[in-house]
Amino acid sequence: MNRSIRLAIMRLVALCGLVSAEASAAAPNIVFIYADDLGFGDVGCNGLKPPGLTPNLDRLAREGLNFTDAHATSGTCTPSRYGLMTGAYPWRKQGTGILPGDAKLIIDAKGTTLPKVLKQAGYRTGASGKWHLGLGAGAGPIDWNGEIKPGPLEVGFDDGFIMAATADRVPCVFVKGRRIVGLDPSDPIEVRYDRPFEGLPTGKANPELLRMQASHGHDMAIVDGIGRIGYMKGGKAALWHDEDVADTFTREAVDFIKRSKAGPFFLYFATHDVHVPRVPHPRFVGKSGMGPRGDAIVEFDASVGEVLKTLDENGLTENTLVVVTSDNGPVVDDGYKDDAVEKLGDHKPAGPFRGGKYSKFEGGTRVPMIARWPARIKPGVSKALFSQVDFVATLGALAGAPALGPESTAVDSRNHLPALLGDDPVGRESLIEQGGTLAVRRGKWKFIPASNGRKVSVNTNVELGNDPAPQLYDLEADPGETRNVAADRPDVLDQLRKLLAETQARSKQ
User: Phi then psi for 320, rounded to 5 degrees?
Assistant: First the structure.
């Protein structure tokens, strides 16, 4: 029996089981927790050392399904978030790389999005946390002092409480709905990325004012004693305090759950942890023994714990699907001198995988993913190949939304609900990984086309996956991508090269 026939039979059996099981189950609430730069190995159940630092994530893994071959679409944050929200590979659209803090919205507000699909099925939708998909439209600069749109509300969220980009980029303020929180009209905000504001200190010119020195970049505006990327002035009353960012986003996420508990609801909780600058609240400082990066992992786990506690206290646990995953793989030194490298010890943030954030190796996109739904998902471990680009179609099917039609712009999203629920052990037959340029997975095989870029990032010390020769890895026998077998299997190499070219050339897989 060939592979295609076997896959078809397995999926048919899984779908039959799914239909009977779902016929009597109410559509669940959905809580999607999206970590930032959390590596596969940064979770206790996947090998975090020392153990015991992520009790809430480990609880989810015990009570749910722990995926060992789940992938963000890309090795960096903006494109992964774009793929998750739109159901389209980000490399299909120009301008989906890492965005500055004053970028315009890169999602087509008229297109298909994950929150729109769930709203169509009757869900109340809310976003709390990091956005980094741009805000506003048009040719002129964003008016940070008025209504800021389009943004989360225009792409399908009923409620939004976000930071525009990341904490290492200006503006360092929160946006609720369409307006900056706590802004004093007499102290308007100005943001730019091309030149500093005259008379204001910068990290480069005034390092003595910094409480955290930069290792590379991050030496422009100084906000809360930390050098940022980009320049801003004004808005003093609205500026965040870095130690409170995680608590603020968690509080907003918990409040949304409480307001929406009549259900069904969809919460997109995109934490900033464990992205730089890593400035955890004082109650987490020193808890990991690995410096601020490890402490930020502990803080992230505590945020997850607050969400789980809220579900428990409001009787929502049984019929709520909780998914925890990350936007890309890990990076240790990403721009600040925070002892992350010096205090890493024996810990391997990417687990057994090679590379990390920015990389085409598995460590770039293979991320932790846990799914818990007590009413439906049986605890265990899944080896199914799963891509975040499929959440639009998959969660839409779970919610009872109409199937995506030919008019949908979610051109790469496929319904893999049986895999998410643990009924299909195979998942995707193939997927594309983006780490600068593209690589392709099919089953156990991984193909990285020849490329002439740097092999190791000068700044982050991450292996990028570039090589002047094509690379082929058998991930079943060699998960660490240490043995290039391209010369031994030219047949597989040719098949995957064709698959990559065909996927790039057409709008649907």
Answer: -125, 125
H/E element, 57: helix 55-63
Strands 445-448 and 437-442: antiparallel
**What's the pLDDT at 25?**
54
- Three-state SS for 183? coil
Preceding peptide of 381 cis, ω within 30°? no
Nearby residues of 468 by Cβ (< 8 Å), 6 or more positions away? 450, 451, 452
Cα 30 to Cα 320: distance, rounded to the nearest angstrom:
6
Cα dihedral: 336, 339, 340, 345 (round 10): 160
Tokens coding 85 = 């929200």
> Locate tokens 């929160």: which residue?
174
pTM of the model: 0.95
Tokens of 275: 């992205």
The residue type at 168: D
Dist. CA 477–CA 468, nearest whole Å: 24
pLDDT of the residue at 26 = 79
Say if CB 78 and CB 404 are below 8 A apart. Answer: no
Q: What CA–CA distances, in Å, run from 68 to 37, 261, 428, 443?
A: 17, 31, 13, 13
Convert 98-115 into a string of H (helix), E (strand) and C (coil). Answer: CCCCCCCCCCCCCCCCHH
Residues of the chain under the 50 pLDDT cut: 1-3, 5-7, 9-10, 13-14, 16-24, 508-509
- How many C-beta neighbours within 10 Å does residue 234 have? 19
Alpha carbon distance, N-terminus to C-terminus of the chain: 24
pLDDT of residue 214: 97
What pLDDT score was predicted for residue 23?
33
Q: How far is CA 417 from CA 267, 362, 391, 505, in A?
A: 19, 23, 9, 27
Please give the backbone phi and psi of residue 61, each rounded to the nearest 5 degrees, phi first. Answer: -65, -35
**Cβ-Cβ contacts under 8 Å for 311 (sequence gap 6 or more):** 31, 257, 317, 320, 322
pLDDT for 11: 53
